[in-house]
């Protein structure tokens, strides 16, 4: 570890420059904090992600000064939701979000969204360390001593507060290793973009197929985004020996769903397939070992509800508002502990319901018998799709001052 005497000093160090990390750095820097934003990758970058942003998050983008940029880049309003499963194609209305910004969500690729938020954080005054990884970290009575590195370069930072905004499947030297042995039930995530296609521009269907689930939506620059999760066992069964994983997933989807096959007619793959995982849905600790967590580091829902981006940005807002409410007393360990408990409570109130709902949806559709019943109901009662979209948190807005809503 480099000497603390030579460390760059900050009020907060945010580890991870994705939506939750950049939004956190942006908010704290705008409030006058000195912030280090540490990101290991180079931007712009493609990421495995469903790309949908619920309209419930648009007030936050307005607060960040980025709403016009997001609207200018994102795809069309998503006004309808549906289910594509086997020969079933059921469609209903997307539940509308009240407020003055928009009733409907849109989709935006992570290479655009992440860069917008990262640049916003830098404009607000955050110091960007990119591409740097955290190589060592140590807690002290005064804060956190971090060593970050890129190639042979090593730099030492000292921060009063550390905020974890890393992906849930990434190993980190500063958090317990959550890696687990591979299992056939592991869910692997895939994503691709397509030009052309016959999907209605205002529709985002849930794709249900043997071994997994996914979604489709029109995103930015006139491209259609397809993302899905499939179990390792199902992928191994459907994949030919000489076939790439993405090609096997696409063939499996086409063969399993009439709606997918029709939507992809005359479409052309744009770029390569991306993959990641296994995903680790569930509620983790919002504060652990003195470190605050946002985004997937705090917890994530099954992607079946398409709320990942919104949850990431909203969790950043919750943490920052809690920290800023006591910012003049955070040197007191007792106050900092109280802030951590308050953040954990508000985090659960905002997200636990949709995480549990997503788990119920995902596990129901993984079992053939329960899936058959669940998929038969929307055919007779399409409004159930709208109701389930509401349960997923599509209309649950973050608590904000009335003037910002």
Q: Can you characterise this structure?
A:
This protein is an alpha/beta fold. It has helices at 19-30, 58-64, 67-73, 110-124, 232-238, 245-256, 258-263, 308-325, 333-366, 368-380, 383-391, and strands at residues 8-15, 35-38, 52-53, 80-85, 88-93, 106-107, 127-129, 133-139, 144-150, 153-164, 187-195, 203-209, 212-218, 223-231, 268-276, 282-283, 287-288, 291-293, 299-300. Strands 1, 2, 7, 8, 9, 10, 17 and 18 form an 8-stranded mixed sheet that branches. Strands 5-4-12-13-14-11-15 form a 7-stranded mixed sheet, sandwiched between helices. Strands 3-6 form a two-stranded antiparallel sheet. A hairpin with a 2-residue loop joins strand 9 and strand 10. The chain starts with 7 loop residues before the first strand and ends in a 14-residue tail after the last helix.
């Amino acid at each position: 570890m480099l000497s603390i005497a030579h460390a760059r000093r900050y009020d907060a160090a945010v580890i991870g420059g994705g939506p939750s990390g950049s939004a956190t750095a942006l908010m704290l820097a705008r409030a006058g904090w000195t912030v280090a934003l540490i990101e290991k990758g180079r931007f712009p970058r493609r990421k495995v992600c469903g790309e949908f942003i619920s309209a419930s998050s648009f007030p936050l983008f307005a607060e960040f000064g980025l709403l016009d940029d997001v609207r200018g880049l994102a795809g069309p309003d998503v006004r309808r939701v549906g289910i594509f499963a086997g020969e079933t194609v059921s469609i209903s209305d997307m539940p509308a979000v009240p407020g003055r910004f928009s009733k409907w969500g849109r989709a935006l690729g992570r290479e655009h969204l992440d860069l917008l938020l990262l640049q916003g954080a830098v404009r607000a005054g955050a110091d960007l360390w990119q591409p740097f990884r955290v190589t060592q970290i140590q807690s002290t009575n005064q804060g956190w001593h971090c060593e970050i590195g890129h190639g042979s370069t090593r730099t030492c930072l000292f921060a009063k507060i550390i905020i974890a905004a890393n992906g849930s499947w990434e190993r980190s030297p500063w958090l317990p290793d959550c890696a687990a042995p591979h299992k056939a039930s592991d869910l692997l995530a895939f994503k691709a973009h397509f030009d052309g296609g016959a999907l209605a521009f205002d529709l985002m269907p849930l794709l249900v197929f043997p071994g997994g689930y996914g979604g489709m939506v029109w995103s930015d620059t006139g491209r259609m985004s397809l993302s899905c999760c499939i179990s390792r066992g199902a992928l191994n069964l459907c994949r030919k020996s000489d076939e790439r994983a993405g090609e096997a997933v696409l063939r499996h989807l086409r063969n399993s769903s009439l709606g997918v096959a029709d939507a992809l007619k005359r479409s052309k793959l744009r770029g390569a397939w991306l993959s990641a995982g296994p995903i680790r849905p569930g509620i983790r600790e919002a504060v652990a070992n003195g470190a605050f967590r946002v985004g997937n580091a705090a917890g994530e829902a099954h992607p079946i509800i398409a709320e990942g981006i919104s949850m990431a940005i909203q969790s950043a807002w919750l943490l920052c508002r809690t920290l800023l409410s006591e910012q003049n007393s955070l040197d007191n360990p007792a106050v900092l502990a109280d802030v951590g408990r308050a953040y954990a409570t508000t985090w659960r109130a905002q997200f636990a319901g949709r995480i549990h709902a997503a788990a119920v949806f995902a596990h129901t559709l993984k079992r053939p018998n329960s899936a058959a019943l669940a998929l038969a109901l929307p055919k007779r009662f399409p409004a159930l799709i709208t109701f389930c979209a509401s349960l997923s948190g599509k209309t649950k807005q973050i608590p904000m001052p009335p003037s910002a809503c």
